[in-house]
Amino acid sequence: MSSDKSQLGKIFAAKSTKFHTRNVDHSLVEGLLEEGWEEFGTPLKTKTRLRKAKSHKVQFEDDIWCQLYRLGYRQLNVDETFCLPFGPTAAEKKQIDIVAVDDDTVLLVECKSSEASAKAPSYKTEFDALRLRLDGFRKSIDQTFGPGRRIKYVFASRNLRLARDSADVIRLTEAGGFYYNDNTFEYVDSLLKAYRDAAHYQFMGLLMKGLSINKDKIEVPAIEGTMGDKTYYMFSLEPQTLLKIGYVLHRTRANEAEMPTYQRLLLPSRLKGITKFIDGGGYFPNSAILNFNEREAKLEFQGQARSKDSASRTGLLKIPNAFAIAYIIDGQHRIYGYANSKFKASNTIPVVAFKNLDSGDQLELFMQINENQKAVSPTLRITLEEDLYWNASRLDSRLKALRSSVIRALGGDASGPLYNKISLGEDKAALQAKPFADALLRCKLLPEGRGNKFVDGTTATSLYEAANVDHNSEMMKARDRTVGLINACYELAEDAFKAHQDAFHTYILSNRGSFAFVSLIGDLHAFETAHGVISIKSTTDERIAALDKYLLVLFKALQTISPENAEALTGKLGSGAEATWLRIFQGYIHAKFADYNPPELQDWKERQDKALQTEGRELGTQIERHMKHFIIDQLQALFGENWDIEIGSIQRDCETRAKEQMEKNYKEGLGRQEIPWTDQFFIKDYKAIIEKYWAKRPEGKSNAQSFEQHFSVDVGHGFGSKADKIKWISLFNTLRNNWAHEGTKEKGLNKSDVDFLSKVHSKLGL
């Protein structure tokens, strides 16, 4: 062990690198190269600089050691030979990978790792013996470092799949140990980035939650009151105390046992600014909001008699002095801003502390407080929806919670192929949650709801049994069915793409790829369900057996994708990109299985048909040109040279547009170009003119038509009123926007659109 800051700093520098390094005589280099060492850097005069990559075991131990050093521990073991006695005999001692000591705690860390992700072996024997060993370790530590420190055994793992609800982890926890897995390591790393030196407090809360700091209770004068049926206390407390007893429920996998969790990580720049503000004499008059769960910490309030004027009362509040017994619902920036302040022991922070809010109430309160403050990120909002709406009275809200739950299960299942690959809450990962949320909303695996009713046609092929009135039970079943199927499909993809990892990560394990892949899974599942091949009673294996022939065709196509289709996928930008990916995926399968031809794929293909687009654009252009000429001729016949004054407001709008277009052309270097105002009519202008002069006919012309006679076109939407007869103009205007933007193929024209234009074209006598 060492507490020499200079020595620990050098060890930290060495452990922070990925290599063992050494300088050796030039004559020794050849033999060491054969042992796996490699030369690096510029050779010295008499020495050669060598390095060798650390083994995964050493690297993991070094990473944990460095993390504890960054958390502020300045008494640590200097090598891997540290042994700690747990009994009186020489045999009763155990090597400990990492030992870290500060004024309050001693951490004993056992590290286990695997080079690649693997299922963990059984640790039953080790954990069964842990309780007795800890008693012995405690005596040795008290003798070495003095009594009073809290001791925590930490079992740290990397790349080992060991679920928190497994028998081994339960044994570890019951013995007083803490399971420190990949999620915990990443969370603590994110704490260090966001909270810097203040991360130590949240770290201690994570490891020591509920354990007493000392037996003396914290006593503060307080006011007791109620809001609805909730009891709360108002008091002031020093930040250094709040930092120890408070805990922030960050939405990360490391806090999964605390669900629902909801908080965002702090911004380092903001935290630093708050500390500077406090040290400059600034203060925050608003209260931090906490919740004490009395299952972990029993509050004691010695109240005075209530006055006749108020239901509130003053008194003395006694709070157990223990780690992480109060959840910080609001005010974490203020509290952590004091962590490195010179005033953390002398200032006090006003507090409103609730008692026994359940987790759902905490979450609701957090959302209400933050509603008008900094927006909750889309990823955090998606993953909060499970806890917000699971027991909602409205069906559509519960289905929102179900989609959120599916995403969390996909990213949080340690045995699944998407484990740790989806960003959940504050955990960052390769994939975002939104593509999965978007896909689940429309992929037919789950039904859609509106209010308290299912949207017609969305339950028949879904994995949700609508007839089950036990909502909670059915939601869990639907989640398990959905997660099981999606995981199985990703596993099928993993196996199929073993030799094509670039294609796998580009087309399947990417944000757009995941949207398209999950959407396709749902569509294929609906297709096979509609044909009676599978049903809601089918097992995951039966579902995969029905879908794998389609998916294998897709995988093969993506492994041999043409440059044109590759560009169509990876080069596609904008809001229509995800739909393009899905349609190309569907197209590969339709090419092999002709009976799989969903209507949306047919529609999309038609919108890519250049000949069809050209035909529709020509029809539309002729219709618009005819409308302009007929309307102007008719107005001139009705009103003579005053026709433009008759439509004065429209004419003024057109003149403004013409001037704006002239200015735009000039600024783009096209020079001065006169633009007639009559070239600036909108379709809505034509419609307004037709409606205003609907039945008028020019005088003295027996064969002249009114607008009603000429522009009434029956397009199948009824044909009784004026609105019915010119309904086609609004439809025409919508289609005009589609053919006017040639680069947006998703908004092009399909065959039905062109048939409509052809009908109008014919009815107008063109």
From TrEMBL:
It comes from the Bacteria. This is DGQHR domain-containing protein. It comes from Rhizorhabdus wittichii.
